[in-house]
């Protein structure tokens, strides 16, 4: 296990209720015969993430029942309906006291982002002050890596569906962009049309 793998915990945000999908929780959408959340955890593990925290919200009890999430720390966000910001805060809170020095944040509804992109972002980790983001043809996307020095600031500004957007904008000069456009596609599964991306 490399030093990066021990010090960086993966944080998978999987709480969304799929409002634009007619209320189908994103974690439970089927991809390659299994729930999407299971696929997303598999990507993180394949990239070398040994510590994975999964933030659940919509239909959390059903997700726990249907998805194989052994070895993951499951975090329930009772405020999931408020948007991604609340899930990011819940996930970062769950890392307090674990000894993790950074969080690698990924989203459950981006199955086009595989282990190759996650590995690149992980490789750019240097310590608690690291701030790293995957980029797709120069445009910032996921996964994003936040060193522990940034967690308080991110939690303070993560509201609604914005997540860490405001914080990253403010700290643009400290942000390292890692180009991943050659190894991943950053589409979201948000609307019924997007379901065509699932296999």
Strand content: 15-25%
How many DSSP E strands? Answer: 9
Biggest beta-sheet profile:
7 strands, mixed
Low-confidence stretches: none
Task: Give the overall silhouette.
Answer: globular
The helix/strand class is: alpha/beta
> What do the pLDDT scores average to?
94
Counted by DSSP, the helix tally is: 7
What's a quick, concise take on this entry?
The protein has helices at residues 3-7, 36-46, 60-66, 84-95, 115-123, 151-157, 165-170; strands at residues 8-14, 30-31, 34-35, 52-56, 73-76, 102-107, 131-136, 139-147, 176-179.
What would your notes on this structure say?
With 199 residues, the chain is α/β, with parallel strands linked by helices. The chain is built from 7 helices and 9 strands; from the N terminus they run αβββαβαβαβαββααβ. A 7-stranded mixed beta sheet has the order 5-4-1-6-8-7-9, sandwiched between helices. Strands 2-3 form a two-stranded antiparallel ribbon. β7 (131-136) and β8 (139-147) form a beta hairpin. α4 packs antiparallel against α6 (151-157). It starts with a helix and ends in a 20-residue tail after the last strand.
């Amino acid at each position: 296990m490399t030093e990066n793998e021990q010090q960086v915990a993966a944080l998978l945000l999987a709480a969304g209720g799929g409002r634009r999908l007619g209320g189908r929780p994103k974690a439970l959408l089927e991809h390659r015969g299994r729930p999407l959340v299971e696929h997303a955890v598999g990507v993180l593990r394949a990239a070398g993430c040994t510590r994975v925290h999964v933030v659940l919200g919509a239909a959390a009890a059903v997700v726990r029942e249907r998805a194989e999430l052994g070895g993951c720390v499951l975090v329930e966000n009772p405020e999931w309906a408020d948007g991604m910001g609340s899930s990011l805060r819940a996930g970062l809170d769950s890392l307090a006291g674990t000894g993790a020095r950074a969080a690698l944040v990924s989203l459950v509804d981006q199955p086009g982002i595989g282990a190759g992109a996650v590995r690149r972002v992980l490789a750019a980790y240097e310590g608690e002050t690291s701030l790293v983001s995957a980029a797709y043809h120069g445009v910032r996307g996921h996964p994003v890596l936040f060193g522990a020095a940034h967690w308080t600031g991110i939690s303070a500004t993560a509201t609604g569906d914005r997540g860490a957007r405001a914080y990253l904008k403010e700290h643009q000069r400290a942000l390292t962009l890692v180009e991943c456009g050659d190894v991943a596609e950053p589409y979201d599964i948000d609307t019924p049309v997007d379901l065509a991306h699932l296999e």
